[in-house]
């Protein structure tokens, strides 16, 4: 069915898109003074129908996020927070396996600045963004804001914003336009990278669904926290205290309910404080901030070591003693302090869980941590209230014992596995390729394989009780973990592993993007021509035009130019669905020389090779700039994927249709055969 939808969609793509420079976003700007030395810069965008423009906060690993670059900031002004955005939408991208955040119809970006230079008369800003429909475009627009001469009062410098967006999009951004106009003209759309967009569901934003998911996950983790040795023994003790110390049964129930509500208030207040202190912009930026991801990786490893028994993480005993003294006063205030005492005493077990939840929930903005803490605390509080209502249920509770430590160790393994997700985020952002898909999966296989051995009783840890046998429940959980471990193993050979698709790096971020055992990969590095590499489906591909041209002349074959991008969604769709077809793949393998030119390649050209484009007037500074300029100047388009069949002199072989883009298998096959026949 998906393939049918893909083919139908492909045939609906307009055929003239490759013969024009597209500019689907029109901008206007204004500057307003908020107070002495403080100004608000506003960018208003009108987006053409059916196009999407991506937010600053769309996650790493997907389409390119917007970047707001202040060109003359140093020594002139400071930013007050991060640029704020108008309402966005969210939809899942099944190619990059992330939730994209984007604008439709219109967008507004606002940035407050505080002047530090009394002689400053203008602020220069560059917006780099991606806009998508059936095809996608990377655009770079420059704006100049004139500071009113009478209002350039200087204020004391402030510290720069501590949260910086370090997303993959920033790494892949391509600088192009270098002009000074306030409202860019059509000629400025020297577009850096064209990325075809996955078809988004025509629905309202899925933020409510995401928040509901946050609540459910937090609720489940709250129940898990109940089963730790720090919390579980407290249930019968606390409920018995309320039922025995209260003068009537009704009073005991009331006090237990107040106790449960107090737990909820404490944790929800924590979520509120996190949101209030950091704010929505900072919380959204955290998910793509390199240092945050590295820091949280280290923190989770420490938490995991604590859960596994290396040491205990505890708040100072003096805190608990002071809270206990307040609890002795009785009344509602005393009950509130009893709940606070529970939070402090159980911190060594609940702290790592709460920390993980807060970070994950923070990606949903201000409301995320509040919803997450409500779900967690509700699960934590419910047993205290229910057992107060039905005290007879206490007799059915299992006795405390070694199984509680087993739960804690189980959580330690989960924390350790989750830690590598954050390290993977940082690696993806920096494009270091140190934690590629195979390495990530190997680490998870080792972690969950060890967990299975632990559950089967083959491994013991410091705080484990002597084990003469394993329970049926523990055996069942061990079998489940072992099954999951075995499920991960084929991922090393290219299996998609859809159950955990949101966790490991994407398939293309891999030592062998088509899998270690791909039968199509018949070439080794020793067999490859100079300058070539193994591409999708084992196709030999060049990423430099001159190297590919030299090889094509040597073997006397036509050239297929593939204008593509590292973050190009529909480039990946064409490779996965069209190039892999049994009728197309042999042609790409045997009848042409493939040259893939990445327009978002951020590697800088040697100074001697940098130039000003005679076509667009843009500064060509990177490899991606060079291929972008080549595409625009020769083929008059700025969209990808773009395919061109040429002879050895660079002339197009398909005279009727020189270029082709996002199409189905049949059209692509016929286009290839027609061009090759004229070589």
UniProtKB/TrEMBL annotation:
Keywords: Cytochrome c-type biogenesis, Membrane, Signal, Transmembrane, Transmembrane helix. Residues 212-424 form the Cytochrome C biogenesis protein transmembrane domain. Its main location: membrane. It is found in: Membrane. It is a multi-pass membrane protein. Residues 1-19 form the signal peptide. Gene3D superfamilies: Glutaredoxin. The chain crosses the membrane at residues 211-235, 256-278, 290-311, 332-354, 366-390, 402-420, 440-461, 473-493. It comes from the Bacteria. Pfam families: DsbD_N (PF11412), DsbD_TM (PF02683), Thioredoxin_7 (PF13899). PANTHER family: THIOL:DISULFIDE INTERCHANGE PROTEIN DSBD (PTHR32234). This is Cytochrome c biogenesis protein CcdA.
């Amino acid at each position: 069915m998906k393939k049918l939808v893909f083919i139908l969609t492909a045939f609906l793509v307009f055929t003239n898109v490759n013969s024009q420079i597209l500019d689907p976003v029109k901008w206007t700007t204004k500057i307003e003074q908020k107070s002495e030395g403080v100004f608000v810069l506003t960018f208003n965008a009108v987006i053409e129908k059916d196009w999407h423009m991506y937010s600053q906060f769309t996650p790493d690993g997907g389409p390119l996020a917007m970047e707001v670059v202040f060109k003359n900031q140093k020594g002139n002004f400071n930013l007050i927070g991060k640029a704020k955005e108008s309402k966005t939408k969210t939809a899942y991208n099944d190619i990059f396996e992330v939730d994209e955040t984007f604008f439709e119809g219109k967008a507004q970006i606002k940035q407050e600045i505080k002047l530090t230079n009394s002689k400053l008369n203008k602020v220069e800003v560059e917006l780099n963004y991606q806009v998508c429909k059936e095809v996608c475009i990377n655009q770079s627009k420059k704006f100049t804001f004139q500071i009113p001469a009478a209002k350039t009062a200087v204020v004391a410098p402030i510290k720069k914003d501590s949260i910086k967006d370090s997303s993959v999009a920033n790494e892949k951004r391509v600088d192009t336009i270098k002009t000074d106009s306030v409202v860019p003209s059509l000629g400025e759309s020297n577009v850096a990278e064209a990325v075809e967009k996955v078809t988004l569901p025509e629905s309202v934003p899925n933020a409510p669904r995401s928040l509901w998911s946050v609540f459910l996950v937090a609720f489940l983790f709250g129940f898990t926290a109940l089963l730790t040795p720090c919390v579980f023994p407290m249930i019968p003790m606390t409920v018995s205290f309320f039922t025995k110390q209260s003068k009537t049964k009704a009073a005991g129930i009331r006090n237990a309910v107040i106790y449960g509500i107090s737990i909820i208030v404490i944790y929800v207040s924590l979520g509120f404080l996190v949101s209030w202190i950091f704010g929505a912009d900072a919380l959204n930026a955290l998910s793509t901030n390199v240092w945050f991801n590295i820091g949280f990786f280290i923190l989770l490893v420490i938490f995991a070591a604590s859960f596994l028994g290396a040491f205990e993480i505890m708040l100072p005993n003096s805190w608990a003693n002071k809270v206990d003294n307040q609890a002795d006063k009785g009344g509602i205030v005393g009950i509130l302090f009893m709940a606070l005492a529970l939070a402090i005493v159980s911190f060594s077990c609940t702290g790592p869980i709460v920390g993980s939840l807060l970070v994950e929930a923070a990606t949903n903005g201000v409301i995320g941590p509040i919803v997450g803490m409500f779900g967690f605390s509700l699960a934590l509080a419910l047993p205290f209230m229910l057992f107060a209502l039905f005290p007879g249920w206490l007799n059915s509770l299992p006795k405390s014992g070694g199984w509680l430590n087993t739960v804690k160790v189980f959580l330690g393994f989960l924390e350790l596995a989750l830690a590598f997700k954050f390290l993977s985020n940082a690696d993806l952002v920096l494009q270091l390729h140190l934690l590629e898909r195979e390495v990530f999966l190997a680490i998870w296989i080792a972690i969950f394989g060890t967990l299975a051995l632990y559950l089967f009783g083959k491994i013991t840890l410091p705080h484990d009780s002597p084990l003469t046998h394993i329970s049926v429940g523990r055996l069942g959980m061990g079998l489940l973990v072992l099954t999951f471990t075995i499920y991960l193993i084929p991922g090393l050979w290219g299996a998609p592993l859809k159950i955990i698709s949101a966790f490991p790096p994407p398939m293309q971020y891999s030592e062998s993007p088509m899998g270690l055992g791909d039968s199509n990969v018949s070439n080794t590095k020793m067999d490859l021509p100079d300058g070539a590499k193994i591409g999708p489906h084992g196709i030999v591909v060049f990423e430099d035009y001159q190297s590919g041209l030299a090889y094509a002349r040597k073997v006397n074959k036509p050239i297929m130019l593939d204008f593509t991008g590292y973050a190009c969604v529909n480039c990946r769709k064409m490779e996965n669905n069209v190039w892999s077809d049994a009728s197309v793949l042999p042609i790409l393998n045997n009848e042409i020389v493939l040259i893939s030119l990445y327009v978002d390649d951020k590697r800088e050209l040697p100074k001697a090779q940098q130039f000003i484009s005679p076509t667009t007037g843009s500064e060509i500074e990177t490899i991606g700039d060079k291929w972008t300029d080549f595409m625009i100047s020769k083929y008059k388009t700025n969209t990808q994927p773009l395919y061109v069949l040429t002879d050895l002199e660079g002339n197009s072989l398909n005279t009727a249709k020189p270029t082709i883009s996002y199409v189905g298998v049949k059209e692509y096959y016929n286009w290839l055969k027609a061009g090759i026949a004229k070589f």
